[in-house]
Design a protein that fits this description.
Layout (H helix, E strand, L loop, with lengths): L2 H23 L3 H9 L5 H23 L5 H25 L3 H25 L9 H18 L3 H11 L3 H25 L5 H23 L4 H20 L3
Helix pairs in contact: 1-2, 1-9, 2-3, 2-10, 3-8, 3-9, 4-6, 4-8, 5-10, 6-7
Length: about 250
């Protein structure tokens, strides 16, 4: 088998795993795919493909859970701060020529976010209330910055959103609508700078079965959520560490 075919096959396997997780939890596909897929294809190749796949995944989730969206929380509490951060992240990405800096930053972020998520998984059982704005907005802005750079601000945004949205259906629906809005913005940005083109679209079509299979498996899986989430973020922590150790 040709090396490129092997790499495409491995990426499809990563996508199946990542989108299974996204379907079960409502988030996580992009951060998992970037953390693992960076060993298969370069970051600048991966990013536009993942943004398009993320848009398709979010569209499906929004259609599925549309009636549960908390529009007031989304439009007034979450979206404005995230958009500010995202604009900063996009600007930073256009300035950086050496993607090694981004890979190091990604590794640090994935490790920190994974630890944060594991802590929050165990603390959620004694859930706190909504975060005050002086804490919530910096968290959302930082999440937006990483979303603008890598399309993976999910852990920080999810941390904030989980404090605002206690019902699982409302949480998944509202966050999925947010991912859809941000994905549309990123597609426009990447298209404007030439990173989304016929080659990108063709590549996305080739690996699309990974998304479809992930949705299929995720829709049918039943897990005890606590150990499943802990396992996912433990794997992400290891992946982030490996990113820092890259030559």
């Amino acid at each position: 088998m040709e090396p490129i075919l092997i790499r495409v096959f491995l990426l499809i396997l990563v996508l199946v795993f990542a989108h299974t997780v996204e379907t079960v939890l409502g988030f996580g596909a992009t951060i998992i795919t970037l953390a693992l897929g960076i060993y298969i294809f370069p970051l600048d190749t991966m990013l536009p493909v993942l943004v398009i796949l993320g848009l398709l995944q979010s569209l499906w989730l929004v259609v599925r859970w549309f009636k549960y969206i908390r529009w007031r929380v989304l439009l007034l509490n979450i979206l404005p701060a995230v958009v500010v951060g995202m604009a900063i992240g996009i600007y930073y990405r256009t300035l950086v020529a050496d993607y090694r800096q981004l890979i190091i930053l990604l590794g640090i972020f994935v490790m920190a976010a994974s630890l944060l998520e594991i802590v929050m998984i165990y603390r959620t059982r004694a859930a706190g209330g909504s975060l005050p704005r002086y804490l919530g907005w910096p968290i959302l802005i930082m999440g937006g910055i990483f979303h603008g750079i890598y399309a993976l601000g999910a852990p920080l945004i999810v941390y904030y959103s989980s404090r605002e949205l206690k019902e699982p259906a409302e949480f998944r629906a509202t966050v999925s609508m947010l991912w859809l809005i941000l994905a549309v913005m990123l597609v426009i940005n990447l298209y404007s700078i030439g990173q989304i083109n016929i080659t990108t679209i063709t590549t996305t079509g080739i690996v699309l079965p990974g998304l479809i299979l992930g949705i299929f498996f995720g829709s049918r899986m039943k897990f005890r959520m606590l150990p499943f989430k802990v396992l996912i973020y433990a794997l992400l922590f290891i992946a982030g560490l490996l990113l820092l150790l890259q030559p």
